[in-house]
Amino acid sequence: MEDLWARIVTDLAGRLDGPLSLRFLLQPTVASILAIRDGLRDGRERRPPYLTGLFTAQGSRAAWLHEGWKSVGKVFVLAALLDLAYQLLVFGFVYPLETLLVASALALLPYLLLRGPVARAVR
């Protein structure tokens, strides 16, 4: 198990300066723009911040998840596809766990971190 995590950390660090490294700037930027857009809408509509609503909304959690995925899903899929291309190019093999980690870090994390604070700032 330690070998697995050591390989993952080494592989993830190698992505920063390898081929397709521009995606580490572009994909979080696009996810951030989408989060700001959705946060502005949430603030204008007086909705609770996204993560708060996601965890406290009674009965509409699926609607919150669907709305968030609808906004950031394409960025996540693109991040996953580009990471798969990187893995095939550099390693000649696909590591699915690494793909999920990278795609989540590049697409989901910026979206989740920004949408709520933007909504709070607008209100």
Explained architecture:
With 123 residues, this protein is mostly helical. It has one domain (22-122). The chain has helices spanning 2-15, 23-44, 50-56, 61-90, 96-122. Helix 2 packs antiparallel against helix 4 (61-90). The chain starts with a helix and ends with a helix. The model has no long low-confidence stretch (mean pLDDT 89).
Give structural attributes:
elongated; 123 residues; mainly alpha; 5 helices
Helix-strand blueprint:
Layout: H1 2-15, H2 23-44, H3 50-56, H4 61-90, H5 96-122
Q: What distance separates the N and C termini?
A: 46 Å
Unreliable runs, pLDDT <50, ≥5 residues?
none
Please indicate the count of domains: 1
- Tally of extended strands? 0
- In quaternary terms, these chains amount to single chain
What proportion of the residues form beta strands (DSSP E)?
under 5%
Shape: elongated
The structure class reads mainly alpha
Task: Tell me about the largest β-sheet.
Answer: none
Tally of alpha and pi helices:
5
Order of helices and strands: HHHHH
- Averaged pLDDT: 89
Backbone CA Rg: 16 Å
Helix content: over 70%
Short description:
By secondary structure, this protein is an all-alpha fold.
